[in-house]
Request: fold
Amino acid sequence: MAIEYGKTDAEKAILVGLAFNSRHREDVAESLQELARLTWSAGASVVGTRIQVRPKPDPAFFVGKGLVGELKEELALLGGNCIILDDTLSPAQQRNLEADLEAKVIDRPILILDIFATRARTSAARLQVELAQLEYTLPRLTGAWVHFSRQYGGIGAKGPGETQLEIDRRQVRTKIAHLKMKLAKLSRQRATQRKKRQQQFKVALVGYTNAGKSTLFNLLTKAQVRTADMLFTTLDSTTRVMSAGYPCNIVFSDTVGFIKKLPHQLVESFKSTLEEVSLADLLLHIADCSDPNLEERTAQTHQVLAEIGADRVPYLMIYNKIDTVSDFVPSPNEGAKAFAVCALDGRGIAALQAELIARSSQFSNQKRHWR
Reply:
């Protein structure tokens, strides 16, 4: 049976994770729950999940050959048409799996790239997503690699990179160079804009995706950034200047949410956007206090901050969604004050704003002293 590349029906996916030992199985199960949310965010449905325990990935199929046979049977039984792996596949592994399963095979980076392509609204965000797609696609350019083609449809086929089915490596490299030139120009324009804001106190909101950053941003700035209970609702960086109630102008920036196993191509291509974070005077690290994996999410955010050179920027820990956890008590954080808030109803916001007033006042006094 040939894979029907022209079909655009919503994917019905079986999610697959690999645990290196039995103790690792619980972590993989949790990761697959997040993968399911990503899958739903991409417009697909989940019809099953599988976890295989093996000491290392199979070089040809990533998972064992026996599981490949079982997955083929399950796809037929459950009416599935897609397999989504929770890790990064090599080009050969992806091709081998599709050949044996006679179904579409997607890995976690492709899934995240697809969601980014769907959510990109501004020309800057679309440029950055296209660059990330092409960087990921370049080593996978073969006749069998069709994830970015309109002819394939569905997950991985959205966004500016969707016409790259037939293009050769030379053309892709030329396109990548062209995009990097455009993004370099964009970075210079943003640097010029930031120079005009040097006398203003700059606050960037960061955190794991769906922690409530945009809701808090709207509350602090009276903006109307789109919010929703889904992953990566915010992709385009939004900046607002507030002066009312503060001793000096405060520039608030809402940023894209972080996630574990974030494709490094996205981190690289979004560096011009994430510069707002690394050059901020203060970070508000937003965390969902109702998340059962709170500590891991917090650690993942710190890891991405280190990758973009923002790990030395002072920060406040903001534990959001206290309306869902009545007895929540913030954990002590070395070098960071903690605040428990509800961005939906405003609980705890007064204390946070008082801290922002104190910090901006100190910043304003230092600026006057330097003149």
Notes: The first strand starts at residue 12 and ends at 19. Confidence is low (pLDDT under 50) at residues 1-7, 143-152, 161-165, 227-232. The two ends are 74 Å apart (CA to CA). The domain at 12-115 is CATH 3.40.50.11060 (Rossmann fold).
